[in-house]
Write a structure and sequence with these properties.
The structure is a homodimer. By secondary structure, chain A is mainly α. Chain A is built from 10 helices and no strands. Chains A and B meet through α7, α8, α9 and α10 of A and α7, α8, α9 and α10 of B. Chain A binds a DNA duplex through α3.
Chain lengths: 225, 225
DNA sequence: CTAAATTGATAGTTTTACTATCAGAAATAA
DNA sequence: TTATTTCTGATAGTAAAACTATCAATTTAG
């Protein structure tokens, strides 16, 4: 028997739960493929509908607009990643080892998770790298935040901040360091592949370089090197 | 006699140089006001034209599309900031003091520079915080980079990376640390004001906190604390 | 002084983003 | 069972956004 992973999403993110119908699941899987392929700006509900073989209005029954859909898949990713982190650091007692594991999970290439069949986590990871910050870099970030749309991201940040404080309870900036690790795991990856002169890994294009950089940065900051 | 500051921009960024006509200068100043007010997504050439008192087609003579205009004003900002940094660190010999000054310039609120009258640097700084990364977070970042659109950003990063190496020539990640400083100066500011739980400065909302965090982070990393 | 180039304004087209309506299928209630 | 509501997917719109083409008036260059 195969275990299926189900992530409970914020009900206000959608008009109709996409996980509860064939079409809904297709909306998720196909939008991930399309956004990954053409980028979020070129992504439209019309193209998505054609790709699925349904109509635009059908999509609008599930999501108010494409930005909500972006927030949805990005939030899904952060929830999934927090679950992964919990799973992989479950038995680790030493917070330093745990923090290293977290950095590795954040900065490594993701492979498709067999426990979810409508989401390709590998593609989703790359979407979150290139498009993830567009979820909150808007004029309506305040309202969206009131609706708790960014809770999975903030929860993950709180978890990592907690581990940092476990490593060194005197360290003054656990939350800012946590958000820095998360953002930089992604930005350094984007820079490495697209604007290599902004990084020290442009030649090799290896995630290991980013992991080494982040480890050095974090454990210098909290004084555990 | 007043000195005017002129920044030479990449010719491929525009169809007609906006600094060489009345209308061009208005396009720059009004687009900064409008993008600051409504955000980049809600910004259109139609609204800009109405705001200026000209027509849409008039704007299209200067810029191919609104994304090019965004790249233009963001690139302008980075060029201006590199000039500011050069000016304010000119006489400082000690690289550690110079790096501290750079961090302060990156993370402080900007006030309008009297030497440019078509650009409000204060508003532009806030635009770069919220919209700046959208300039390169696209599918066509590779082509745009070939056209050297991001040169001012990369130049600034190289300058900061150079100062880092001056502080500690053994440090292995000067470029990645430089891009981390730049990005985090802005992201921590955005988070502090909009998603405060992602930072340790949500209560006070003071830039000084971010400066202290970045100083701590950087000088721990390069071992000069 | 005349020809070429440039300017600003008008009037389109196509695509995007969304809304309203409707017919058929499924669920439910009397 | 039948009637009623409810839900589904599909059709057909509209308004705005993102351009493009054309043209007449002006400036500039030889």
């Amino acid at each position: 028997m195969k275990l299926k992973l189900q992530i409970r999403m914020n009900e206000e993110l959608f008009l109709r739960n996409p996980e509860q119908s064939e079409l809904g699941l297709k909306i998720i899987s196909h939008s991930i493929r399309l956004i990954h392929k053409n980028g979020f700006e070129a992504f439209t509900f019309k193209k998505l509908a054609t790709d699925i073989g349904t109509t635009e209005a059908g999509i609008y029954r599930y999501f108010e607009n494409k930005h909500r859909l972006l927030i949805y898949i990005v939030a899904w990713y952060w929830s999934w990643l927090e679950y992964q982190i919990g799973f992989h650091t479950n038995n680790i007692k030493d917070p330093v080892t745990r923090l290293k594991k977290v950095i590795r999970l954040l900065a490594s290439n993701v492979k498709d998770d067999e426990h979810t069949n409508h989401v390709d986590e590998g593609l989703l990871h790359q979407i979150v790298i290139s498009e993830g910050s567009k979820a909150y870099l808007t004029k309506h970030v305040g309202e969206d935040n009131k609706h708790q749309f960014f809770k999975p991201y903030k929860d993950l940040c709180a978890v990592i901040g907690g581990i940092i404080s476990e490593c060194n309870s005197k360290y003054k900036y656990p939350k800012s360091l946590a958000s820095t690790i998360i953002e930089m795991a992604h930005f350094q990856n984007f820079f490495m592949h697209n604007l290599p002169s902004l990084t020290d890994f442009g030649k090799t294009k290896k995630e290991e370089g980013i992991i080494a950089f982040l480890n050095d940065l974090v454990f210098s900051a909290i004084g555990k090197k």
